[in-house]
Design brief:
The structure is a homodimer. Chain A is α+β, with helices and mostly antiparallel strands. Chain A is about 40% helix and about 20% strand. Chain A folds into 2 domains: about 80 residues, Arc Repressor Mutant, subunit A (Orthogonal Bundle); about 60 residues, 2-Layer Sandwich (Dna Ligase, domain 1), CATH 3.30.1490. The structure holds a DNA duplex.
Chain lengths: ~140, ~140
Amino acid sequence: MTTETDTAEELLRRLEDGGHRLTAPRRSALAALAQRPEGFTVEELCREVPWAGRATIYRTVRLLVRMGLVCKLSMLDGKPLYNLAQAGHHHHAICLTCGSVADVSRCGVDHLLENIQLLTGSQVMGHRLEVYVLCASCRATAPQR
Amino acid sequence: MTTETDTAEELLRRLEDGGHRLTAPRRSALAALAQRPEGFTVEELCREVPWAGRATIYRTVRLLVRMGLVCKLSMLDGKPLYNLAQAGHHHHAICLTCGSVADVSRCGVDHLLENIQLLTGSQVMGHRLEVYVLCASCRATAPQR
DNA sequence: CGCATAAATGAGACTAGGTGTCAACACATG
DNA sequence: CATGTGTTGACACCTAGTCTCATTTATGCG
């Protein structure tokens, strides 16, 4: 089983491989972020690592997003939420109750985009898909969030 | 053919039908917005109707969004863009070049959401889909935006 | 018409989320 | 251990939007 520490180590390694320095603020930010598999906001991270500058935390998260290690998604009300990227896909089913994020890439998204090209004659340049769900386990239990 | 004036009149009528007052700031905001079928930002509207208060313009747009007359979508970089709602659907193919918005509802979105429920065992509560395209006519001409 | 009154307005403070600047600092390498 | 570039932190600034509250105004009623 992958622990939070493993996750943080992995991110650290990826940063290093990318030619980035492993500084104290980055280590702390990664450690904090690895403990929140259900997603986090940058302000939350700032509160958890109060001795590091706000700009630094934002820069670290932006770096991780650009490297594809973290993805930024938006909740129903438009508020941003970040979470660890599982792989290279870009589609999520976010549970409104527990915050868990499921991969939706194999549910026909590509097919949908193909249809759009065919039916409208346009060329798809990018897309954003966010699905808000009540996940299987939350359907049976009480809301927590 | 529907002119911009017709559009503004129509919006005005809908507001009135909804029990809202037809005030001068609202009339101007609607007139300005009706002239931008390719979408607009609220700040743009504020610049076009500078004698009306910024809060009022924001309130007017929010009202129109809540009434389903205008929809808020977000561009690839996350910046918000508003445009006149064509109907009750919620899916758009936004041309990155000319800003035109096409309806994508009949391209299999519902089918996709059904698949998600079946494959993940979750209940879909809401979703957001934005597709960024180069529309058919822009594929043949030079970029303008 | 004239009036009452609830709805709407405008100024401006405030919020969230995020970026830009710049002097000071620190990591890794020669 | 010098050196130089990447990184930091403080803080100003930005966009997008909301809230408050005193003032104004559209509209239905008599």
